Amino acid sequence: MSEHHKETFITKYIFCQDHKMIAKQFLITGMFMAVVGMLMSAIFRVQLANPGESSILYNLLPSHWLNEAGGLNPDKYLALVTMHGTILVFWVLTAGLSGTFANFLIPLQIGARDMASGFLNMLSYWFFFLATVVLMSSIFVETGPASGGWTIYPPLSALPQAIPGSGTGMTLWLVSITLFVVGSLLGGLNYIVTILNLRTIGMTMQRLPLTVWALLITAILGVLSFPVLLSCGLLLIFDRSFGTSFYLSDIIINGEVLHNEGGSPILFEHLFWFLGHPEVYIILLPALGIVSEVIAVNSRKPIFGYKAMVGALLLIAFLSFIVWGHHMFMTGMNPFLGSVFTFTTLLIAIPSAIKVFNYLATLWRANIRFTPAMLFAIGTVSAFITGGLTGIILGDSALDINVHDTYFVVGHFHIVMGLSAIYGMFAGVYHWFPKMYGKMMNKNLGYIHFWGTFICAYGVFFPMHFLGLAGLPRRYYTNSAFPMFDGLSDINSIITFFALTGAIFQTIFLFNFFYSIFKGTKASQNPWKSNTLEWTTPIERIHGNWPGELPVVTRWAYDYSKPGAEEDFILQTEPLKEGEVEH
Amino acid sequence: MDIALRNTVKKQLLWVAMVAISMFFASLLSAFIVEKADVLNWNEFILPNYFVLSTGVIILSSVLLLFIRTKLRKQESVFSLVFTVLILGILFSYFQIKGWQQLTNQGIYLTGAGSNISGSFLYVVTLTHLLHLLGGLIALFISTIKSKRNLYSIDNYLGLELTSIYWHFLTVLWITLFCFLKFY
Asked: Which of B12, B34, B116 sits opposite A267 (nearest CB)?
């Protein structure tokens, strides 16, 4: 029976336990944080193009962040870079992406009324929200927010007196990330248990849409890796607040010799990157899951190599736990150990190539519908290839050492992780918007948004590889202090131009999103003619998803253009005809 | 959701949470191993006798919890059993604190100029276990009240079962930590 019930404003929109509303809460909070993170990047890109000069954009900043000439203070530049990284990695691409689509799609695509625990699900969002409030409040601290980089390496993060951002700003960063991890864990364990237990009749694991597979594996990654970040942060809190020496040794600061002895910042790096690398796939896998669905639907073809796709996801997840050392080739690592990490890292190319091959094979000779979602899905595959290629260079210790901590690395991870994931997120929003809000987004604005974003993103990140190869270090306040980089200033200006233009294109998306919620054309029940269960629910949102009995699944999710079928799609609930082979 | 499925779901939520907690401690112990190998002035320590006592106490409490099902099947009250386990849990916490006192008497400190990283690890590992145990004590306290009100029966004791599973987990976790700290 349906579990729909009368709801008050508070239980429907605020302390809501309906997975669909929680998904929207994650999405809206993630979008808000994306705007904040994007504005921060626009500001520090302006600084890099015109070092030390004032800008109209700086009006957004507290006045004490600026020098007398109206330029950005160097320590606040570092704060902006740190907060941009933190917000984009954790708030937008982890919670914004996984939180939105895991919540929205898991119950709908497996045929469940809701998550295993609606209460824990609600709690997961509110921990995330609280984390957001704490992180944002750090911007208003007098000494500024954390500024030692999003990886918060000690000793800058372990000694409150190290730099301005190491004080209260760093404390608030640690508090917010702890709340964030608790929220993520609550969400993750709910996703796993929901998928394992609440699949409707007939929804075997072999019939799960690839989105659900990707979200399941992402949740497992999170449950196994986020606690490590928690223990890493706990030791850091002990070092900075209680005077232990886990990450500190032989420190002299302002002429004062600290008592700390025996610890090692390298230990922090090991613990941090044990989360940090799986985190890359916590970000990427949901996007790849979304892309699998969007490409199959809009190619009007079954996804090529379903089992290989699942196997590749599992293999990527496994390998992601044994490659963290490739972030640490420069820490004096034993060269033999470095070669082991090089080997395991390069192994990831195999399942990645399987996925890319299968996407291309699905697209091959397909009757493609170029919807905005489909363009962003193909964009994800494109960025995954482009960024993945430079990953081969950075995964090799002998090559990585030459470009470590340069803009080559920035270009690489922004394309392979940032662009792939954000394109996947856009693909998901455009594709499932009709299900979320019962309205259609404007297609033409979607096309403008895609092409503008695509061109600008490559305009920003492609030249960064050349800057990196020329030796330009990342995170520097200005690149004009060293004559050897003078010849690169024009490239920096071009990157900033594309960054600002790209930001303007995102306002088109924001307008389209909010305008369509209120004024968009009404969506039909199954506007993309898709097979999966979410499109069998009523257009109007009800808690419990289906008004009567739960649907019964009789086939996999990818029966598109099946020979002999009347239409080019067959819902998963449609029984097999006599003599029909499933796939 | 029917009752059987709801019970399965709640147990699985707990199991996955315990996997996450295990990863937390696994990372702390990994850090311990790495640092012990790397740090030149690593001070060896002797575990306090109180930790041996607390190990005995927590094992006893876990063993007692094994009889809950039998008692419920015989339709007997489980109050005295759960209450005893709660008292043993509090006793375990007391012995842990006494153990830390014994450590400071030996000159092993969590922090400060006289501290060593080995001692800091010892305190952090045992402290975080105790914090997790605090959750178990709260659950035991609630179970004690419910059992006093005879709210449990063989057909309806999910809360107590979840508490037992978590308490057994804390016991196994403590034995693992104790053996690691004692013999590694």
From this structure: B34
CB contact under 8 A, B21 and A227: yes
For A467-526, what is the HEC assignment? HHHCCCECCCCCCCCCHHHHHHHHHHHHHHHHHHHHHHHHHHHHHHHHHHHHHCCECCCC
**pLDDT for residue A1:** 43
Tokens read off for A317: 């997840």
Give the model's pLDDT for residue A479: 84
Nearest to residue B29, comparing CAs of B96, B129, B166?
B129
pLDDT of residue A3: 57
Query: How confident is the prediction along chain B (184 residues), in pLDDT tens digits per residue?
Result: 788 999 999 999 999 999 999 999 999 999 999 999 988 788 889 999 999 999 999 999 999 999 999 999 999 999 999 999 999 999 999 999 999 999 999 999 999 888 999 999 999 999 999 999 999 999 999 999 999 999 999 999 999 999 999 999 999 999 999 999 999 8
- Identify the bridge partners of residue A439 per DSSP, sorted by sequence position: A522
Directed axis angle between helix A265-299 and helix A372-395, to 10°?
140
CA–CA dist A299, A580 (Å, integer): 22
| Inside any domain, residue A174 | yes
> What is the number of domains present in chain A?
1
The boundaries of the domain holding residue A289 are 9-536
Q: Which domains does chain B have, with CATH numbers?
A: 3-37+49-183 (1.20.120.80)
A479 within domain boundaries:
yes
Residues A446, A426: Cα–Cα separation, whole Å? 10
Q: A153 exposed, middle or buried (CB, 10 Å; 0-12, 13-18, 19+)?
A: middle
Answer yes or no: are the C-beta atoms of A143 and A168 closer than 8 Å: yes
Q: What is the CATH number of the domain that holds A352?
A: 1.20.210.10
Assess whether pLDDT exceeds 80 at residue A432: yes
In a domain, A161, yes or no: yes
In a domain, A406, yes or no: yes
Interface test with B, best of A267, A269, A271, A331 (most B CBs within 10 A): A267
Q: Are strands A252-253 and A256-257 parallel, antiparallel or unpaired?
A: antiparallel
A246 in B contact zone (CB under 8 Å): yes
Least confident of A3-7, A198-202, A411-415: A3-7
pLDDT per position as a tens digit, A81-115: 999 999 999 999 999 999 999 999 999 999 999 99
Distance from CA of B134 to the nearest CA of A (A): 17
Residue A6, pLDDT > 80, answer no
Classify A66 as helix, strand or coil. strand
